[in-house]
Structures are given as C-alpha cells and as structure tokens.
Amino acid sequence: MENGAAPTAKPVIVAIDGPSGTGKSSTSKAVAAQLGLSYLDTGAQYRAITWWMVDNGIDLADPVAIADVAGKPEIISGTDPSAPTITVDGVDVAGPIRTQEVTSKVSAVSAVPEVRARITELQRTLATGAEKGIVVEGRDIGTTVLPDADLKIFLTASAEARAARRSGELKGADVQATREALIKRDAADSSRKTSPLAKAGDAVEVDTTELTLAQVIECVVTLVEEKRAGK
Ligand SMILES: Nc1ncnc2c1ncn2[C@@H]1O[C@H](COP(=O)(O)OP(=O)(O)OP(=O)(O)O)[C@@H](O)[C@H]1O
Ligand SMILES: Nc1ccn([C@@H]2O[C@H](COP(=O)(O)O)[C@@H](O)[C@H]2O)c(=O)n1
What we know:
The chain is an alpha/beta fold. The protein has a single domain (about 10-225), classed as Rossmann fold (3-Layer(aba) Sandwich). It has helices at about 25-35, 40-55, 65-70, 100-110, 115-130, 140-145, 160-170, 175-190, 215-230, and strands at about 10-15, 40, 75-80, 85-90, 90, 135-140, 150-155, 205. The chain has a five-stranded parallel sheet, with helices on both faces. The longest helix has 17 residues, at about 115-130. It is globular and about 50 Å long. Bound molecules: adenosine-5'-triphosphate and the ligand Nc1ccn([C@@H]2O[C@H](COP(=O)(O)O)[C@@H](O)[C@H]2O)c(=O)n1.
C-alpha cells in the first residue's frame, strides 16, 4: 500500500435462500458473526408486518385491504448477528412474530405485491448500507432483492429432516403435523405470482439433510472466503 494502510476488504453481499427449516437463519447468523458481517432475517420482516396486520384487525383474506395499509407500520431491523432485533412502530416484536398464528398467516401477507415492494426496499437499503458486507436470508434474495449478490446459496433438506428439526425446537410438537405445515407454507411461498421462493440460476445448492449445522456453516464460510479470494 502506498500510504502503509492495510487494504480494506470490499463489502461482500451473501444471499441465502431456501424453504422453511433448511437452516437459513442459524447458518446465516453464524457465518455473519464469524466473518464480521451484518445479518438480515427477511422472514422476520414479513412476520413483523403480518403481526401488525393481525394486531390491527386487517382482513387477511382480502389482498386489497392488506395492500391499502402495507405502507403504514414502521419496521426496523437490527443487523448485529449476535443480537438481531426487530421492532414495529418502536415495539419489540421478536417474540410475538414467532407465534403459530403469525406463522400460519404470513404467506397470505407476503404474497401481496405492495407488501413485497415495501419490504424489498427496506432490505436493499440495509444491504447497501452494510459497511463490511451482509448475509441476507430469505426466499427471493438471490432472484429479486439482491440479484447482483457476490455469492448466492440455496439451502435444501428433506421435509422429514426439516420437520424433525422444527419439532425438536418446539419441544416435542407432532412431527407429522409440523411436516404438513412446512410443506403447506413452502407451497404457498413457491406458487405466489410475485417473487416466489426459488433458486437463482447462479446459486450454489447445499443439501443439508445429512449435514450437521457446523458442517453447513463451514461450507458457507469456505464459499465466501473463496469468493473473496477471487477463486
Ligand atoms: N444442519 C442442521 N442439522 C440439524 N439441525 C439443524 C441444521 N440446520 C438447522 N438446524 C436446526 O433446525 C431448526 C431450523 O433452523 P433455522 O431456523 O435456521 O431454519 P430456517 O431455514 O431459517 O427456517 P425458517 O425459514 O422457517 O425460518 C433450528 O432449530 C436449527 O438449530
Ligand atoms: N425473502 C422472504 C422471506 C420470507 N418470506 C415470507 O415470510 C415467511 C416467514 O419466513 P421465515 O423465514 O421466518 O420462516 C415465509 O413463509 C414467507 O411467506 C418471503 O416471502 N420472502
């Protein structure tokens, strides 16, 4: 370096997509923490706007009613991977957005184009503002939100593995019912017209069925490092 300063790494943008329960959040958070990057859970944003709609009595069977109020709530995501946060109009909703009610209703809200336009804008602002780079996880990050991401990963796993993981998390919830709920949500997310759940053509697919979480994290960290090294 001419002035003796250490070279600063160019911010790296990593998009991680995939169906429910494939390990997107756990992997993205750990990869971001390990590499000193920001982290954005875009599912939490869709859950937050859904929570607000439920709290305000919006008819979720009516896409026009959803579209009419899509711009109203102020949603703020904190992107520190060691302590990600999410607020709606200043209220911490990290807990309430994980209820069964929100989980069962989020696909109806996230299918509405006006909701997607609003949330996509928030996501792009956060991604471009991340000084050192960011890991963004969701369903349409590689295809729509950040099509120029430096690295795109698409995580998959069998429905059985995903249901077993989720049931363990929900302290013994019925595996069969969990499996059906995951499949139903994935079908809704994959079949919506606007920005469906899909693998980008240039994404690296990682099947996590037989991998431990630590192995998945290691695999993604290696892919990011290779990308940074220009390999
Ligand atoms: N490779 C793995 N092996 C075993 N368990 C895993 C693995 N990856 C993730 N898990 C566990 O599976 C559960 C779901 O993972 P996670 O929340 O990261 O998935 P997700 O893809 O973000 O799901 P969703 O899209 O529904 O938010 C968590 O309890 C997590 O610890
Ligand atoms: N990029 C995204 C991310 C999420 N969604 C919708 O949010 C739901 C909840 O996502 P989780 O990751 O928290 O499970 C998901 O089922 C989608 O409906 C989305 O549309 N796009």
